[in-house]
Amino acid sequence: MDIKQIQELIKFVSRSGVNEVAIEQKDFKITIKTNQAPTVITATVPAQPVSQALPAAPAAQPAAVTASAPVADESSKYITIKSPMIGTFYRSSSPDKPSFANVGDEIAEGKIICIIEAMKLFNEIESEVSGRIVKVLVDNASPVEYDQPLFLVEPM
What we know:
Blueprint: H1 3-16, E1 20-25, E2 28-33, E3 40-44, H2 48-53, H3 56-59, H4 62-75, E4 79-82, E5 87-90, E6 106-107, E7 112-118, E8 121-126, E9 131-136, E10 142-144, E11 149-155
Antiparallel strand pairs: 1-2, 2-3, 4-11, 5-7, 5-10, 6-9, 7-8, 9-11
């Protein structure tokens, strides 16, 4: 496996969302692992050119980790309300109705905070916490994934 093939493999893994790829050949072994963190590359290579190229790939990643660290500290005092399903997020029951929850609103446990449409069914999502909405993390009529953060709530 040459340098170009390794670089293509790294690009493929980063785009595909695969968590781990391991390749073993006669005298060559490479494992690429990802977990929403920097890509980790482990290689045992008898040839010199490959070992020179590998340190360059992880060097670009630490900057992204450093940039996301302040966000985690900033939101650590808040409770995150996450999507219980895959679907389309709506802040109100129809375009001419007011939003269920806006930034600054106080919500109680059991209050409807949004609707998620899944397979032509409109599911009212109730809050499981009491507090004040600090941030709405999803745009209206946007697709959402299971366990995706929707709201940040300051507990009361």
